[in-house]
Sequence to fold (1065 residues):
Amino acid sequence: MAEIRDITDYAAKDAWSRRKFLQATGLVAASLAAGPIIEACGGGTSGGTSNTGGPYKVPKARAGAKVQLLQWNSFVKAADDEFKRQAAEFSQANSCTVTIQTVSGDDLIAKTPAAVEAGSGPDIIQMEYGWPHLYEQACIDVTADVNYLKGKLGAIHQVNDAFCKVGDAYRAIPYTQVPNAWSYRTDMWQQAGLSKFPTTWDELASNGKQLSDKKLGQIAVSLGHAYGDAITMWYPVLWDFGGREATADGKTVTINSKETLAAVNWAINTWNSNSIAQNTLSWLDPDNNQAYHSGLISATLNGASIYLKEKNINKKYIDVTDNAAQPGGPKGLSTLNLIFNHAVMKWSQEQETARAFLLYAMEHDNYSKWMSVAGGYDAGPYAAFTNDPVWGTDPKLKPFHDVVPNGKWPAWPAVPSKATAQSQVQFIIVDMFAKAVTSKDAKGSIADAEQKLKRIYEKPS
Amino acid sequence: MSTATLPKIAAEPKRRPLHVRLLNREAPLGYTLLVPTMLMLLVFLAFPFLWGIWLSVTDAQIGVDETKFIGGANFLYERGDTVFIQSFWNTINYTLVTTVFKLVLGLSMALLLNQVFPFQRFVRAALLLPWIIPSVLSTLAWRWMFDPTFSVLNWVLVHPLHSVGVNWLGTTNTALASLMVVNIWRGVPFYGISFLAGLQVIPVDLYEAARVDGANRWQQFREITLPLLRPVLMVVLMLSTILTFADFQLPYVLTKGAPYNSTNVLSTWAFNIGVPGGDIGIGAAISLVLFPILAIAIAGVLISLRSKD
Amino acid sequence: MATLAQRRRAPKSERPFTERAAGRWLRIYVPILLFILITLFPFYWMAITSIKSDQELLDHDQNPMFVIVPTLYHYHYLFFETHFLQWLTNTTIVAIVSTAISLFCSLLSGYALARLRFRGANSIGWGIFVTYLVPPTLLFLPLALLIRTFHLFNNLFALILTYPTFLIPFCTWLLIGYFKSIPRELEESALVDGADRIQAMVRIVMPLALPGILSAGMFAFTLSWNEFLYALIFMGDTQSKTIPVGVVQELIRGDDFFWGQLMAAALLGSIPVALLYSFFVEYFVAGMTAGAVKG
Fold:
């Protein structure tokens, strides 16, 4: 069963400073003294952006407003359907129109900058990873709304916070995380004589070798440009061996270190000894799902979509599928989860309605319902959702719940910025590993990555 | 050309309207006729082009309002970019190799189609299909054929042919080869049909005369067919070179630059840096590099194929 | 007019029949069959995939060349659970209108550049050709800003107005070649007869260029049907998308390639253009002949 965690647990994690903890509790106290929650109803004055001075006014939808939200195609379609249903509900209750438009994650990556550059497009755009830092000027300041939500729902997870907060202002409203954990075939593990899923990377390598030798399915992770699965795998590998892309202030590139060398060597040895599948260099996000559902591989890192698809649709390997948390390395245990937040764009003519809708979606009951329809695919970014009932519905979902607190962001510990966003979008770390395993030249690939990172971080701008 | 009977136009004794009289002279008519085209091209092409050039010498970034002129800094910056250099050579490689193959295969196809055989019309139409189908969709079909897990090509290699499957999109060389295969598959019909058109205009008597003079088939081909195909060759080569150099769809959909950015061409790399990466100035600079290369390539084609008259 | 092949066969009547037949097989039939096999196999593959159930598609042990239990589920999904029909309509409208605009512009400019003498004609001709050298990846961001200024985002007109930029140059070129092959005397006589230039152009010369116009039109239609980058950037709403963009964006849900539906869409997405070509392929070839060869 899920352990009960409360806000003090968040504070105990080293990523949270005492100052933030005090901030959070202070806000909780302050907002308890604030007025009751106002359900957004039609009519009322149209406000400006949320950063107007004076006491906070909960945004209200304007009757007749048309708001468009652009987001990715969630890997669990039911979650999107529920979100659209809530949008329809909100629209009807407020005599406005909120439409949700979904595109594939890859296309979101292309359309968002185009919209930002053209200065027109959807009113709300879903921000992947550190995009608020890249598009800071195009997103309105929603600090007041975020503080309001913090008051109602508790502290924000460090990663959503790092992504949404640019400088002193929040440029996006924290929305969700897609926890990534390992789905694996218990029957293959048994046949190989292994008792449990590995807890360290070295164990994973040796387990993988045994599975491979016995001609059971291999462990397979993407080494290609998969914006989800490759990023969530190789950054933690780097971190767990002690490697770091840059310093916390984001000014110096520190990738070229003996810790990174250890990580890269682990990858080279593991790949070349056939302990993990070797045909994954061109894998995009759907490929490991496809391979798992065809029974060809024994384990892979992914969001809960593989498990959920087996459970609800395919039902072929569901009895022999279980999930496990990310293994750790000699210098720590980290995870990286796919993060999405919502930004209201500055060109929107209906900013207040847009904000009102986003707050509506974050209403505890609405969001919780969405989480339960998603079946464990999405995790909430606020403390109030840490122990949402959805996690209790299925014991096999526990690893997805447990990986959330350890989550970090790409290029951690460097503060999210334009440079970190660019390094992630260009897959520099993933490519470093991919190059290393194929060329067996650890030092060369690290030097190459270093040069690329230096060009991004140390660019005179 | 058949001479059609000219429609009767009665001589009009009354004065014609002013605009007709004005446009009766060649120059005013000429310029007027050009107006629609110039309008479209100036607004939607020349203007954005100039803007694009401007972008390439600024530090423009997505979402940032202030941009400042930085001269050639973007171009210098790209000199140190290993992916850019690789994309550059990939683009040249990609265009050269595919053009040679398309030329040879297109010509062969045209020569074949020029013969008489049953179901000729059907075959002609069928062989045009790869060019007709939207290339994004056919590329996806090929992606499915090259799929790392389910490639039907690998199945054929493994089962009937008892060989080994290939990781088509997973290693740089095979991935580049895959790109070329799809481009060739898609492009040969265009070459074929154009050459066929060219072949059909060659007067048969020339071949007769040559045969009477004792020329064998190969000599006939070299002395008659090839020279007379030159105009078509020029047009087709130029068009194809331009389109292949600037090709974006195929590499974008098939490999997206993987593995590790080694199969980028200049268009996809420019797109990647400019759009998700946010550096439009640099992206524009990379795109601009295409322009002089293309100009040189086209000049080369023109010079080598200019009819000597 | 006898074709090359017919003429060629006559002198060889002295050779024995079997040798001739074998020669034909080797020289003609076998290569053609090879071409057909390689050209059409992907289409066979698309068709097979589109009627295979998901289970069979992802079953690694099954022979992928055949279907055991065909299903129309993917087509059903395509028509009823996506906006495929809307995309089909959009793509058709954009293709037809942008082709019409391009043909109109190319007709006029082709005639002007081919038949009329005036200063700058040559440079303008070259200028139009040079525009082809401008790569779309350079243009699309400035164009996006332009489209914003005209408030045309999500509007099919964004595509209708931008597609002619790559359609007009080639069509102009083709038509120039075509016009040049029409004897000048036709116009001269018309002018002598008392017609003005415009009448001569519209009622005499242009009808003769019909095959060229058809040819250029088909080429333009194909290119327009095919276009991806501009449609990707300028069209946002599901309802406004064209087939290439809609298929790529909505049938690849990140975690899942819907291969069955993708292949069904690929097949259906090529039918209109294929039909067009099947009716007009002779014209297309004839148009290319005159236009390109004599250009």
Notes: The two ends of chain A are 51 Å apart (CA to CA). Chain A has two domains: 7-178+337-393, 181-336+410-457.
